[in-house]
Amino acid sequence: MIDLGKHNVLGIEVNAIDYDAAVGRVIAAGKQRKTMAVTALAVHGVMTGVSDQEHRYRLNQFDLVCPDGQPVRWALNWLHGCELSDRVYGPNLTLHLCQAAADSDVSVFLFGGTDEMLREFSTTLGDRFPGLHIAGIRASEFRTLSPSECDALAKQINDSGAGICFVGLGCPRQEVFAYEMRNKIEMPMVAVGAAFAFHAGMLSQAPNWMQRHGLEWLYRLVCEPRRLWKRYLTTNPAFLFRLGCQRLGLLHRQVDQGRQPKTTIRFG
After folding, report:
1. Beta bridge partners of 109
2. How far is CA 225 from each of CA 96, 190, 219, rounded to the nearest angstrom?
3. Where are the alpha helices (DSSP H) in 32-168?
4. Which range is least confidently modeled, 97-111, 153-167, 187-201, 221-235?
5. pLDDT at residue number 228
6. Distance (Å, whole) CA 65 – CA 76
């Protein structure tokens, strides 16, 4: 079990952690019904914080920021000598957590995506983890909620009795949601991005060899060029450039806490 605390990656505090430690922390909080904001960031997720001071502030308030992408793991190893042998990939973290939740009698709530996606995702989890109790599901409205709708959503999740809430709204909306709801939802909120779509069978995952070599972005770019070309062809080079500058001591010498958001977005 590896849990080496948070380390500065381009001004964002990222945990040098493995699956066992991450699962242990989330399950412990879930048993206590203790609020906790958790995410797994790849390069795009880190760069959303680099380019937006308010979002950087949100990310740096998270209890647990896992290194989702191989380049983020490599950054921890290169900059801080963490010697992590594996990343903590959101879709795999979801499965590890569901297995541990089933073993620990901790129920889960699924929030995000469409009704169809949630039905397929729930079926997959039920087949794979017979002991897992899914306390509730709620599709995204794909819009900004009113304050009363936001309170009603938090009440629905809390009243379900779940110990963990998986959030699948996509980056960065899911991180915004977890940040804004951390004082309303009484359990860990785990932002897992494309895990819902992957495990629902609606989005294909890169082959393992591409994942191991940090090429998952290329696979997804080929699959969704119109949507993702700008994300990967601009953020990836910017990430590498800034990483080199941090290594040389030219940029990101310290964690930059960013600027506290002035407004609440309430996407749900």
Report:
1. 136, 165
2. 30, 28, 10
3. 43-51, 53-59, 70-80, 90-104, 115-128, 147-159
4. 221-235
5. 80
6. 12
